[in-house]
Structures are given as structure tokens and as C-alpha cells.
Amino acid sequence: MADSRPTPGELLVLICLECGKEFMFEDEAPPADLSCDKCGNAVFRPFAVSPGRDDVEDEFRSSTERDLTPEEGPGDVTPGDVSDLGRI
Fold first, then answer.
1. Nearest to 44 by CA among 25, 58, 72, 67
2. Spatial separation of the C-alpha atoms in residues 88 and 80, rounded to whole Å
3. What count of other Cβ atoms lies within 10 Å of the Cβ of residue 12?
4. Per DSSP, what are the bridge partners of residue 83?
5. Phi, psi angles (nearest 5°) of residue 58
6. Which residues, 6+ apart, have CB-to-CB distance to 85 below 8 Å?
7. Can you give 20-39 as a three-state secondary structure string?
8. Dmax of the chain from CA atoms?
9. Residues of 52-63 as b/e, b for ≥16 C-beta within 10 angstroms?
10. Whole-angstrom Cα distance, residue 32 to residue 73?
11. Any idea of the CA torsion for 15, 17, 21, 27, to the nearest 10 degrees?
């Protein structure tokens, strides 16, 4: 498992099966003798992720970020709230 190489534009993530610690490799292949520095395990679950935003992140942001344009549509933000942000 540790001899796989990340494809261009992706991030290779190896997760320790024992403790769950993540090891990330972007440009280079993981070392052949890789072992977890937390628990010493040498068995990992590999998966590749594409860097950048995805649907899950976009949904989270849309449901948690503050509305900075109180003039557009209903919301709980007032012009005073936006002014207060400038004083932080």
C-alpha cells in the first residue's frame, strides 16, 4: 500500500488502521518503510482526494457563514451587524 504514488492534481492520504492518524503525500510517494509515529502500526488505508472545494464544503459554508449583504432577501443580519464587523 505504501508504494502507491499520488496522481497529478490529487493528494494521497494514508490512514493508520490502528489509531486513525492521517499521512498526506502530494508530490512524492510514501516511503516503503512507513510506520505510524503515533502507534507504530504499518498498515494503512489509502485514498486520493482532489484539493479544492467540494459540495460538502460549499453546503457547510452556506449554512454557517454570516450574510454580509442584509439588503438582499430575508435574513437575520442587520446593517448594524455588518458595521460591527468592521470594528473587530
1. 25
2. 13
3. 20
4. none
5. -60, -40
6. 66, 68
7. CCEEEECCCCCCCCCCCCCC
8. 58
9. eeeeeeeeeeee
10. 56
11. -20
**What global pTM score does this model have?**
0.50
- Write out pLDDT tens, residues 15-45: 999 999 999 888 788 888 999 989 988 899 8
> For the chain, what is the mean pLDDT?
78
Count CB-CB contacts under 10 A for residue 44.
22
- Which cell numbers in the block locate residue 7? 496522481
Contacts of 79 (CB under 8 A, 6+ apart): 70
CA distances from 47 to 34, 83, 84 (A): 16, 44, 43
- Determine contact, residues 18/43, Cβ cutoff 8 Å: yes
For 54: left if phi > 0, alpha if psi spans -120 to 50, otherwise beta; the answer is: beta
